[in-house]
Amino acid sequence: MSLSVRTKDEQEKEPMNEENQHRDSSDQKVVMERQLGLLDGVAMIVGTIVGSGIFISPKGVLLSAGSSGLSIIIWTLCGFVSFVGAICYAELGTMIDRSGGNYAYLSEAYGPLPSFMFLWASLLIFIPVTNAINALAFANYLLLPLWGTCLPSDSAVRLVAAFAIASLCLINCWNVNWSAKLRSVFLVAKVAALALVIVTGCAFYFVQGNSTRGFQEPFATTSTDPSLIALSFYSGLFSYGGWNCLNFVVEELKDPYKYLPRAIGISMPIITLVYALANVAYLIVLTPEELLSSSAVAVTFGERVYGSLTWIVQILVAMSALGSLHCNIFSSSRIFFVGARNGHLPGALALISLENLTPMPAIIFIGALAIAMLIVGDVYVLINYVMFTDSAFLLATVSGLLWLRWTRPNAVRPIKVNLAYPIAFLLVSVFLVCLPIISNPVGAVTAIAITASAIPVFCLCIAWKRKPNWISSSNQRFTTTCQKIFLAVPEVANDKQY
Which of 26, 134, 197, 305 has its CA 20 to 30 A from that of 352? Predict the structure, then answer.
């Protein structure tokens, strides 16, 4: 079998058609194709951000804000802050045209140790917890209509969640185009669910008038405690998590210089507007007290408006959570793929399927981590660790943008944002990192300890070059075995094999 090597410039110039995707073995490509267009990028950002959170528990913002009026303002401001962060990442993503997101940017700005710490935190905290929660939310809301007035059994929920993870991993392994089409289907379900909430809320306002509205005195009970207002921003920004997901797959965008900023510019304002309108709709139908007492706001909303047809809302919420899981599996697998390609994880995770041109071992690894997390009794206790650690790495990454502006002023930057944006986002990130240290020192210290545990692992597994031969040979045998099982080889690009 002869393998042709193409540079990235050649990949970008070559049209993406069926003939290029399926060639015979004499002209096999060993790179992941640039197959994602503008619609795919928008679908990925919207699909990752809009998960189960906006339907299940938007009460965190209202609880800390104290009033319905301030909560809507905070939802809007959180969307603006996320948009600022996204355009900062657009500069990084077009300057450093490599998949991996934070991992690639931290490596470029600060070197291998900080990037490995992000990879380690992703391995232990970010990715498995996020995927497990989305899978459990999907399973819960899929089974609710079947169980009637009772809650689904825990074993049934976990079994369905595991099946969902395995099925989506299979689709992502098989074909990138199928994966993109499925994202579009989930996007339609998310839009339908949010449109149903917003339109119903408006209709309810005209039918019921002021009797059940949550805006009779919108600012009467506004909180004046700065720490509580800060917590409301924390909850709101968590609901916008995933705005940087497209940066993790930038090598698979057809034209990242064009599509990355456009996808951000289209998706982020839409999500901000829809989130604000959805919360307005909730508070038109429900009083603040009813919203705060609900563990699943969309279901309480549906019961008030639709009665016996609440199952429609439940199914749409389930589809929304499944869509977020699908997008997370796709983007997060690229983090481990790039990490393994750089020698920070076992080489088997950097293999690409010859037949499907997908990072099959990395995707399967992602699925195994998420399924393993389902065994944990209560994964939700790890959410605080996710929020704190994620904020810390966002802070480090955006500070890296400023550092690269200083150390590499002449680097090619197809997009160059005004310095006011990264500085403003940096200040918000400092605020988000410092707040948990004051309000929840135990959780913050635990998250720091988990992340810091990457340092001895880095020293032993990466920095230590003179390892015993049996370690290197074992790693090589494992990689060779995976090559045979998955019919996969290391990536070949830029005139070299990784």
Answer: 134
**pLDDT at position 86 over 90:** yes
pLDDT in tens, 254-281: 888 888 899 999 999 999 999 999 998 8
In single-letter form, the type of residue at position 414 comes to P
Tokens for 29? 């490509």
Cα separation, 219 vs 211, in Å, equals 18
* pTM of this structure: 0.80
Residue ranges of alpha helices (H) inside 342-439 are 360-374, 383-407, 420-439
Q: Give per-residue pLDDT as tens, 403-413.
A: 999 999 988 88
Q: Which amino acid is at 213?
A: R
DSSP assignment of 41-105: HHHHHHHHHSSSHHHH-THHHHHHH-SHHHHHHHHHHHHHHHHHHHHHHHHHHHHS--TTTHHHH
First-to-last alpha carbon distance for the chain, in angstroms, is 18
List C-alpha distances in Å: 246 to 94, 435, 485.
11, 28, 30
Q: What is the percentage of the chain residues whose pLDDT exceeds 90? A: 22
What would the two tokens of residue 440 be? 């929840």
Tokens of 43: 């679908």
DSSP 3-state of 352: strand
Amino acid type, 403: W
Contacts of 301 (CB under 8 A, 6+ apart): 197, 200, 281, 282, 285, 286, 313
Burial class (CB in 10 A: 0-12, 13-18, 19+), 365: buried
**One-letter amino acid for residue 268 of the chain:** M
In the chain, the amino acid numbered 98 is: R
The dihedral of CA 77, 318, 367, 29: what is its sign?
negative
